[in-house]
Amino acid sequence: MTSEVARHLLYQSHMPTKTTCLSSQVSDDEQKQKKENIRSLTMSGHVGFESLPDQLVNRSIQQGFCFNILCVGETGIGKSTLIDTLFNTNFEDHGSSHFYPHVRLKAQTYELHESNVRLKLTIVNTVGFGDQINKEESYQPIVDYIDAQFEAYLQEELKIKRSLFNYHDSRIHVCLYFISPTGHSLKTLDLLTMKSLDSKVNIIPVIAKADAISKAELQKFKIKLMSELVSNGVQIYQFPTDDETIAKINASMNGHLPFAVVGSMDEVKVGNKMVKARQYPWGVVQVENENHCDFVKLREMLICTNMEDLREQTHTRHYELYRRCKLEEMGFTDVSPENKPLSLQETYEAKRHEFYGERQRKEEEMKQMFVQRVKEKEAILKEAERELQAKFEHLKRVHQEERMKLEEKRRLLEEEISAFSKKKATSEIYQNQSYMASGSNLKKDKDRKKEPGYRFELLCFDVRACETNGGRKDAEEGREGPCTMGRP
Amino acid sequence: MDPMRRSPSPCSSRPSSPRTPPCEMLGYVGIEAVLDQLKIKAMKMGFEFNIMVVGQSGLGKSTMVYTLFKSKMWKSTVPGLGTPTPQTLKLQSVTHVIEEKGVKLKLTVTDTPGFGDQINNDKCWDPILGYINEQYERYLQEEILITRQRHIPDTRVHCCVYFVPPTGHCLRPLDIEFLQRLCRTVNVVPVIARADSLTIEERETFRRRIQHNLRTHCIDVYPQKCFDEDINDRILNSKIRDRIPFAVVGADREHLVNGRCVLGRKTKWGIIEVENMAHCEFPLLRDLLIRSHLQDLKDITHNVHYENYRVCRLNESHLLPRGPGWVNLTQAPAGPPATPRPSKVRHQVQDDSKDNEEY
């Protein structure tokens, strides 16, 4: 339906080919493009698109620039001072202590204005680097920090709804590695740290406090350092030499690496000018004097000539490497096992389904477990209920028995009482008969009889009442017996 | 996804918009040299621009392309008598590299012969939308590869110039339908073609009517109001919006006028100079497309239209069947409004949640 859009070979040849693993793909591309070619047209008049670079620049000015520097070096080696001197400001004043148990990173962002350029500068300093007795874990926090910034960017890029143009880029664009001016060689810690950082960030090694080394020693030191770096396979940042305008100066600067720098914000009067310098009893070390140190070179290279290239390298090389490793780690590939091109989407979908399935399964499991637990609990409760019931029955039976016993006793007692009253009746009859015989002692005897009789009856009544009350109390728990009646 | 979240960071998580105390520099540092670095990089890499011209045949599309870029894109602008008119809409893309003062521009022009020429023009915008979406798809596929290219070739259509026939009345139903569908997917710049058949007053009335039509049907042409960043942009763009659609005339011959050689159309009653503002508004179109807003067109395509496409695509993907039908050309869906571009002057972006509701 549509014709293939042709690609132009000219562009590919001008791209800086610093790619390592990408090179194979680029050459494949080139092969494809050699087959299709694009005509170069000459125009018959003025069109006006030479303003295009200006349009681009205007847009960048509006957006503002972002630059992130990481300074790695021992405490007190002069990192903050150098940054202050580089950007001609006083960022922060206080030094840090030597007694931190771990290496930390501290990031601060500043906004700088120069003519119409807005620069958001982020300085990340290592705090406590090289101070610990055991330095095994020293470089890991740095690596983690750099990775975290890449990670954040990757997350943003992989979002469905993303806003990359609004994103504050926090990826480290350059790492200034401060080497102590021992004059001998690299320390082991330095070597290890640089080795672990070189594939993640552009490293520019600098020799700090270079006013402690003499010129002759410096030359030897530099050569020693570079040879050590090369022999250990540490890839430091090389200033790009593919553009003619800056190739020459960059190439010469590459030969001066590592830069021996001195930082100072103090001003000293030299001649009739105030210059930034460090005053010693034996002389004045001027920061911006090229004979004294390489500070001017560093500033030129870092800011004036290669800032954009540093950012580009970070984005196209280091970030892409991180991204590729990360995605491969997660199981995404570009080519499926059957060698058919696999898209990220498909793998993503597959993983998504997998995760869903997993989640479903887990949910099911949890549900099952829950049901199980509920059942168990129910069983326990039922058991308890049954026990309680049994106990209740048992108690009831016991009471029943007690009651029956008491009833039995009561019956016996009543029989006794009735037998006794019968006896009493017969004895009264006999007594009457004896009265008839005597005659006069009747009333007195009667009275006397009545009283004991009454008392006698009362006695019987009391005993009976107590007994029955006591019995009833035993048989029926908790019920108030008649003896409690009337009591408050 | 757990592995991603596991990575620790000793420092707090990235500052989304960090507090930036403004610092005053005590002297010249040289930060502004970064602008030069940018320029050098841009010149080296070259620029890309993809433009699509849509309109019925005979409206002067090819001539207009010639006038804009001063170079013959196609071998012949007039179809020969022998060639039959195409039955279906076939898009043709041509790519050229043009250079001016060291700046290289890779220009791709897509023509749409046969648009609106059939008896039944129903759904004649489908192939065009399909083409535009295909370019987005291509870019997206490149972008989500594991090993990406250093510079993803940009074939997305940055601008679509729509030629309105100079009836003098108002927009036709075909125009309205097409514009409605397209302005959600791509930057559309409508122009009144062959404006030399209208007088100045007729042009004005026609323009007003078209503007009214566009407003009534909620067609948002470039420059879109919602993407104005600050007051300067707004002022500039309002002036442009006032003159949209431009009444243009294209020409590919030069004539002698007052001793100067100018591009123009020679008629019995005079020579219409293309670059003369009094005669037609071609300079405005050229300035908009090339001299002032080219980068902006590309930005909006990349930041808004492409992102919208990407969101739809990634949201829908679990509904699409996997396999050979993977690269599925979806039509511009009837829904999602463009998310407003967040301003560089740091005010809050309101993301349209309508996008999610639609799907």
TrEMBL record, chain A:
Residues 367-423 form a coiled coil. The keyword Coiled coil applies. GO terms for molecular function: GTP binding. The keyword Metal-binding does not apply. It is found in: Cell projection; Cytoplasm, Cytoskeleton. It comes from the Eukaryota. Residues 63-329 form the Septin-type G domain. PROSITE patterns: G_SEPTIN. Belongs to the TRAFAC class TrmE-Era-EngA-EngB-Septin-like GTPase superfamily. Septin GTPase family. This is Septin-10 isoform X2. It comes from Neomonachus schauinslandi. The lineage of its organism: Eukaryota, Metazoa, Chordata, Craniata, Vertebrata.
TrEMBL record, chain B:
GO terms for cellular component: cytoskeleton. One of its GO terms (molecular function) is GTP binding. Pfam families: Septin. It comes from the Eukaryota. Residues 1-17 have a biased composition (Low complexity). The keyword GTP-binding applies. Belongs to the TRAFAC class TrmE-Era-EngA-EngB-Septin-like GTPase superfamily. Septin GTPase family. Septins polymerize into heterooligomeric protein complexes that form filaments. This is Septin.
